[in-house]
Amino acid sequence: MTESPVVALQGPRSVGKSTVLRDVARRHGVGVVDLDDPAVLRLVVDDPGGFVDSRAPVCIDEYQRAPVVLDAIKARLNRSSDPGGFVITGSTRFDALPAAAQSLTGRLQLLEIMPFSQGEIDGVREHFLGLAFVDPDRVRASGASVTTRVEYIERITRGGMPMAIGRSTGARQRWFESYVATALQRDVRDLARIRQAAVLPRLLERLAGQTAQLLNISRAGEAAGVEARTADNYARLLEALFLVRRLPAWGRTLRAKAGAVPKVHVVDSGIAAHLLRLSPAKLARRDPASLAEFGHLVETFVVGEVLKQASWNDDVATVGHWRTRDGQEVDLVVERFDGSVVCFEVKASAQVNPSDRSGLVALRDLLGDQFTAGYVLYTGEHTARIDDRIYAAPIDRLWQASL
C-alpha cells in the first residue's frame, strides 16, 4: 500500500481475503464495500464513481461481481495516483476478466492469498525455502521426524481452507461439497457465459484425477464428454476460480529433450482428496489403488506448501517442474532472480531409494553452480545428505520451527 495505488488480493473463495480486507479497513478507519451483498451490488452498479470517490483507502470486497468499478477506479487514478488509494479483493484471477487486464496496468499490485500453510495452522513461522537457498546443509541438524503416516494423511485430507480445518471428517466433506458446488454454479456466472455448465463438475473431477501429473486435457475432456478445445477453455475457468493450477514446465532452454507440458495440481489438497473420494480411512487401508492416489496427493500437498512459502519470498522469480522426454524429472523447481535454484522430489514412501534422486542428480549436473540444493522429501524419519548438494528430508521439515 505504500508503493501502489491499487492493491488487489486474489485467491480462492473463503480463504481469508475478506478478513484481511476488514482488518485493513479497521486500521484506517474506513468501511468495506461488500459486493457479495445484493443491495450494495445494485447501488455500485448504478453509481460506481460515487463509491470510489470515498476517503482512501477505498476497500472493495469481491470486485469481480461488478467489474465496472475498475473503470471508475481508473478514472479516479487519472486524477490522482497516490499509493494506497484502493484495496480490492477478488475470488477470480484478475487477468481472467477482459477489462481488468487493460484498465489498471502499471498501477496495481497483485497479491495471492492462498489456503493456510501447515505452519500457519500450527502457529509456526516457516522459513525452510529461504534457508534452502542460503544454508541448505542446516536441515541436517534437525532431529528425527515424529510425524506418522496417519498424521500426514490427516494433514493432507484436511487441507488449508480455514473453514474446513476444524471440522470432523464428515462435516468437512459436506463443506467441501458445498464449496465446490457454489464455485461452479455461482462464481462461474460472474466470469463467463458457458453453454455446457453441467460439464464443469465432471471436468473438475477428471482434472483432480490427474493431480500431480502431466496435464492431458484431451483425455480429461473426453472423459467429461467435451472436445479438447472446449475442455481447455473450461479448465482455464477452473484455474481462474483457484480450483486448479497449471505448474509450467521449467528449463526448456537447458536441453532439446526437455518437455513443455505443464503439470496440473488441485490448489488445495483437502479439496483434491474430496474430489477423489479419498477419506483418511480409505487411504489408511494401503490397497494398490489408494497407494497410487496417495502418492499424487502427497506431491500436490508438498508443492502447495512450498509455493506458499515462495509467495512470501520476494526473491523467487519462477517455479515449475522439470521433465525430459527420456524420463528424467523433478517435481518442483524454484528459481530466484539471481538464477540459483532449489529443487524438490516428493515421495510418499518412508524410505528413500537411490533412484529417487536420479532426476535431481541429472538437473544438478546440467546446472552446475546454479544448482543450490535438491531435496527428496519423504514420509520417513531421518535427514541426511545423500549426494553432493542433495538431501533426503522428512516432509514435515517444511514447517518445523527449529530449523
- Largest sheet properties: 6 strands, mixed
Number of helices: 17
Strand order of the largest sheet: 9-10-11-12-14-13
Terminus-to-terminus distance: 31 Å
Poorly predicted runs of 5 or more residues: none
Percent range of helical residues: 40-55%
Q: What is the molecular shape?
A: globular
- How large is the radius of gyration? 22 Å
Beta-strand percentage?
15-25%
Number-wise, the strands total 14
Structural class: alpha/beta
Kindly report the oligomeric state of this protein.
Answer: single chain
What does this structure look like?
This protein is of the alpha/beta class. Helix content is 42%, strand content 18%. The chain is built from 17 helices and 14 strands. It has a 6-stranded mixed sheet, sandwiched between helices. Strands 2-3-4-1-5 form a 5-stranded parallel sheet, covered by helices on one side. Strands 6-8-7 form a 3-stranded antiparallel sheet, sandwiched between helices. Strand 10 and strand 11 form a beta hairpin. Helix 11 crosses helix 12 and helix 12 crosses helix 13. It is globular.
